[in-house]
Every structure is written in C-alpha cells, then in structure tokens.
Amino acid sequence: MSTDLWEYRPGAHPAADLGLFGYEVLATDGPVGRVEQDTGDHLLVEAGPWVPGTRVLVPVGLVARVDHLMLAVHLDCPRARLSSAPPAAVDLAAPGPR
User: Which has more pLDDT, 16 or 1?
Assistant: First the structure.
C-alpha cells in the first residue's frame, strides 16, 4: 500500500482541526524539535535539540500518531531519515514575491 507523504494517515491525527504549533516532535530514536508551523501537509520543525539552528520540513505522512495530552507528535522514522528532508531555507510564513 502506498502512503501519500503529504496527507495524514487515517487515525494519526484524530483532532485534525487542532494545530500542532509548539508540539514536541519525536522520532523513533529521540527528539527532533518543536513544531513552528503546521500547514496541513507538512510541519516546519525547529530542530534545535537535535541539530542546533536547523529547521526541517516533515511531511505529515511520517506522523504515526499525535498525543494531544502530552503535546507530542510521534513519527514512525528515525532522525536520520529527516536529515535527507529538504532544508527549510526560506521563511514559509513570509509572503512571496508579487
């Protein structure tokens, strides 16, 4: 079965109407960082605890589950898989050129 990396898996985010800003992101082998932006198809994560000064884009298809009580996003992959994710070199919240 193919998984779309840009969509949540069924049941992974039961309260999808809640944003994940500030949630801790945890890979299978440890913490990644905190969610700075939740766009619906990816999370922009400030990865300071893992790689200081780095922001990474995490496709929501990697989310195994969201724990709203603990304010945590659990991924189904190790941090090494995220190191191949595109770097967040641009501020996605800033408006683009017109």
Answer: 16
- Kindly tell me if the per-residue pLDDT of 45 is higher than 90: yes
Rg (CA), the chain: 13
Distance of CA 60 to the CA centre of its chain: 6
User: In this structure, are residues 50 and 32 in contact, taking their beta carbons and an 8 Å threshold?
Assistant: yes
Distance of CA 83 to the CA centre of its chain: 13
Range list of H helices, 1-98:
79-82
pLDDT, tens digit (0-9, with 9 covering 90-100), for 25-40 = 999 999 999 999 998 8
Q: Which amino acid is at 98?
A: R
pTM of the model: 0.81
Burial 13-45 (b: 16+ CB within 10 A, else e): beeeeeebeebbbbbeeeebbbbbbbeeebbbb
Of all residues in the chain, what percent carry a pLDDT higher than 90?
48
Half-sphere exposure of 52 (CA within 13 A, CB side): 0
